[in-house]
Amino acid sequence: MTTQEASSNRxxxxxxxxxxxxxxxxxxLMLGDIGLFIYSIAAGHxxxxxVWALVLSLLSLPAIIIxxxxxxxxxxxxxxxxxxFGAYKGTVRTAGFHWGNPFYSAGTQQGASQSxxxxxxxxxxxxxxxxxxxxxSLRARTYNSPALKVNDKRGNPVEIAAVVVWRVQDTAMAMFxxxxxxxxxxxxxxxxxxxxxxxxxxxxxEDNESTLRANVDEVSKALRTELLERLAKAxxxxxxxxxxxxxxxxxxxxxMLRRQQAEAVIAARQKIVHGAVSxxxxxxxxxxxxxxxxxxxxxxAAMVSNLMVVLCGESEVHPVINAGTLYS
Length: 328
Known about the structure:
Helix content is 48%, strand content 18%. The protein is α+β, with helices and mostly antiparallel strands.
């Protein structure tokens, strides 16, 4: 038993005849054929035309019409894949007016599948993207993924979306190695985005751990790297990939918001306490250095307590005047 591995196609750049040269030549052939037809009738004897001239002119007319169908144009950043009776003959990338073999395929299975998908979905945009005569746009295009609900590294459900800037790099691979390269890009982009989200926590990672929210550039670079690997089979390269939407799923959004608020309050309290301790230490040190008042340990403890209440309290402080002594 032998197994045969599927070999990927590789693009071959070819050149075809200049359309501006072939167009007047074909018109000249058309005029010559019309002249031959007129000659066959005029040079005949009575009602009998010149048979050989008449037959030749009638046979030449459809041949010339078929040859005219070989004319085609290419816009900048556009290519045409040449397929002759099922065999790949090369790709034309030069913009302009060209003439090629009229028997080059006017459509492939990919074009038929895109047309069928467009009819099934009733989408005018999908129908407009169907390749005409195997033409493929080489321009940079974007894919905006929908917001996907996935679980992050810690199992929390999050919503994530990304924009992918891509373009066709190898027309042969895009046309023949995948059924529909645009559908392939969408499927692989969503799959890569789901896989990426499961590798990172949303936020509050461990020490030196990258998270989706805090390390957007790193995450975007990892997404582009994975997409380059996945889309290489379709002859597609990725210029840029970035996250466009990141949020907790609605079912846990409120709980996570309360957690973030609690963390913010704790962080604020820590800063307030740290500042208050520094101010109390500075006050006691200045009092001792300038010998304003001599305080024993008990009076220092009372002063520290009062200052901490004043500095850390949220409500307005109302001072109380002590008429006696601390020990009475």
